Amino acid sequence: MKNILEIYNVNKIYRNSVKALDNIELNIKEGEIFSLLGPNGAGKSTLINSICGIVNFNSGTIKINGYDNVKEYRKARQITGIVPQELYLESFETVWKNVNYSRGLFGKAKNYKYVEHLLKLLSLWDKKDSKIKELSGGMKRRVLIAKALSHQPKLLFLDEPTASIDVELRKETWDIVRKLNENGTTIVLTTHYIEEAEELSSRVAIINDGKIILVDETDKLIKKLGEKSIKIQLKNEEISLNENIQKKYNFEVHKNILTFKYNIKEDNINLTKMLNEIENNGYQIKDFVTEQSSLEEIFIKLIKEDKKP
Amino acid sequence: MNYFGVKAILIHELDRFKRTLLQSLASPIITTSLYFIVFGTAIGSRIKEIDGINYGSYIVPGMIMLTILTQALSNASFAIYFQKFTSTIYEIHAAPLSSFEIIIGFVGAAAIKSVIIGLIIIITAGFFVDIEIQHPILMIFFLILTSITFSLFGFIVGLYADGFEGLQIIPILVITPLTFLGGSFYSITMLPEFWQKISLLNPVLYLISGFRYSFYEVSDVSLLTSIITIFTILISCILFISYTFIKGYKIKD
Lengths: 309, 253
Prior knowledge:
heterodimer; A: alpha/beta; Rossmann fold; 6-stranded mixed sheet; 4-stranded antiparallel sheet; elongated; B: mainly alpha; two-stranded antiparallel ribbon; 2% strand
């Protein structure tokens, strides 16, 4: 699939000498949902603001659909939309005027039918004549999404779309994101909620201190770096484990539960053999469950590794 | 050229004017009426004529200048500063708009508002005194050019302001005193020679004088000097704003 966004060696140093972006290289494929994951202050917002023209970067190249976002900024920006993290809206304007204003800014002629379709899609149609100040937080966020989509962009950036919102609204936002993607919009979202990246995106990049630490498919990332554990519950109430088995598998023992941790990358793990060995040593297995590390655990692990001198 | 983008900014800014229509229109009408009561009636009864013009009529061009200079500056500075303050400016930056187009949008809207207010003052003044406009085209030329120039100046003030207080400093501490001292309500020939010379250093004097010429064919300085002055201020504002945009200072991080 073709790249809709290409970023080459992008650097950004703020006036206070903070290096916000450090040699960023990244490609986004057309039609995907991509998550940019990182802790607060990692450079996520600076990166998407640089792509969208809100922040000037110092060096490097950003191409949107093949257009350089500095030299050919008109063509590049016509196909991008951004939903900011904060609710930046003019309180005294109506929803209708706000969305039509955004469409005009991006150089598009009036198209009331499309704006109507958009407001209906985002469940805002009955609020079209309401002033922004009269709306709830969730509605305001949907207005921001409507504004960002008003000029029918191919590439949509969502900066922390579910920051500081309740669980119900988060699920609602995820549904909207999926719906937009199904309609053909490529979506890049920044988040520090791992659950969000795991739930929505096909690929993920982890950014920390302005550097991209890793880019991979979300599932592969979990498989590649994920630790698995198997918890074996024995019938015996209290156990003293055979020293040989304990040494071989390094079980964590808690009452009658043995926990064995392994990485799915390792090929030499033979779980059948391990279970047989336990039984052959006189222990009866009552039950067992497997657990896989979440993206959150992987994320913390990567950030910690990155911070090591 | 992103025509739809410029139009969107213009309409958006003029909408704000419409939303506050009552105060936007009532303010210049009330202020003009008050000036006529204070200057026209109280002082005008003692000063019958200046340069052969009835005092009440004489002060009309100065009053218009006083209002459009402050209104153009305040409207433009508030418009851009408000977008910075509410951070809604992110959308302008993200849109496919050149710096030039952004300026046309904001400055154009502020200038249109100022011209409308200027015309309202002329109409209001017409209820109090006789007004003659000897050179209507020249009058419109001064009105529009001054509105554009001071809207540009206001745009710069709005870009550089770090707070709402910053927006008020230039209109209150610079423009209003310069306008009052620039012959709005008198001819500088009425001043002692020393103060006449000092007054010549005031650029607003040239704007008022040129504008008054378009009404009554009387002026404190030559028409050409007035025209050169307004163009000098306009070009200075354009150069300064171009420098600001090239450097990106106070615009984008």
